[in-house]
Design goal:
single chain; two-stranded antiparallel sheet; mainly beta; two-stranded parallel ribbon; about 70 residues
């Protein structure tokens, strides 16, 4: 698992990375109050999944279909 540094809570964040086959990348971000969005986009030849957890560790959103685009 690779972990990336995050900006200040609620700040916009844009990051480009390469996830190797059968690997996991983990990002810990603070969204603050209100709504937030996460977008993960692959090179159209992979299957990427996205899981979003709340501060208490509970799953609040996921996109685990068989595509490499998550929003």
């Amino acid at each position: 698992i690779a972990a990336a540094a995050a900006p200040a809570c609620g700040s916009p964040y844009d990051h480009v990375d390469v996830v190797r086959a059968y690997d996991t990348d983990e990002y810990r971000l603070c969204f603050g109050r209100g709504s937030a969005s996460v977008r993960v986009e692959g090179d159209h030849s992979s299957d990427l999944d996205c899981y979003v957890y709340g501060p208490a560790g509970s799953l609040v959103a996921k996109d685990d279909d068989h595509t490499d685009y998550c929003i």
